[in-house]
């Protein structure tokens, strides 16, 4: 199991219980859609996977290691997180610099770095925009830059927060193919999404959060058959 979450509970300082005894495991290469109404706890769960939040109780294991012993930098080698709002994660003056930042930071050797950056630009359809400043891109394009910069870090787990929001049809098709390719490569994709078509076409499994707990977990086909 690449991800193993056991009895994860989390409260915000104001007392809101955002996660309440959440347990599930994910196999390498699985494509998992995380659904649920606003306030269900989806973002809080994603923030735990990347170590932005730490459990109040319960444990998270990624690739066989408990995350409470890992720093953010170490976790970043294992889990990539694409924020819902790309402007939370874009800093560089050009697309290619932005995408190259992660691999440099993780100290991949130069040849490997080039390979990862070029592959990420190609897979996200950004090659033509490589020298453009992210400020001059549309929201949909900036979201693809954020995704490319995470892909370039070559993490075994990729977490996406609302990847299709603000994307045109062609970009959604590209994103879907990308999710499929990642899984074929044995990488694991967890995506928070409200996009049912995207979920039905490109995911294996659905986990529904409700009031901080899991109300449904199973194969996407079973889920579609009962909604
Ligand atoms: P979702 O992503 O499913 O919309 P969230 O994880 O954002 O849900 O929120 C889960 C619960 O935690 C909600 O009740 C929300 O209002 C609350 N919450 C989220 N962030 C904070 C915060 N920073 N401080 C206090 N409560 C929060
Ligand atoms: P999402 O759409 O991803 O669930 P939200 O729009 O609910 O995110 O929240 C946006 C930001 O506000 C997040 O940083 C979240 O942690 C914070 N937040 C959400 N609910 C609350 C809350 N009740 N109190 C304080 N902060 C909150």
UniProtKB/TrEMBL annotation:
Organism encoding this protein: Streptomyces sanglieri
Alphabetical UniProt keywords: ATP-binding, Nucleotide-binding, Transport
Origin organism lineage: Bacteria, Bacillati, Actinomycetota, Actinomycetes, Kitasatosporales
Residues of the full protein shown: 1 to 227 of 277
Record protein name field: Energy-coupling factor ABC transporter ATP-binding protein
Domain ABC transporter: 3-227
Family the UniProt entry places it in: Belongs to the ABC transporter superfamily.
Top-level taxon of the source organism: Bacteria
Molecular function terms from GO: ATP binding
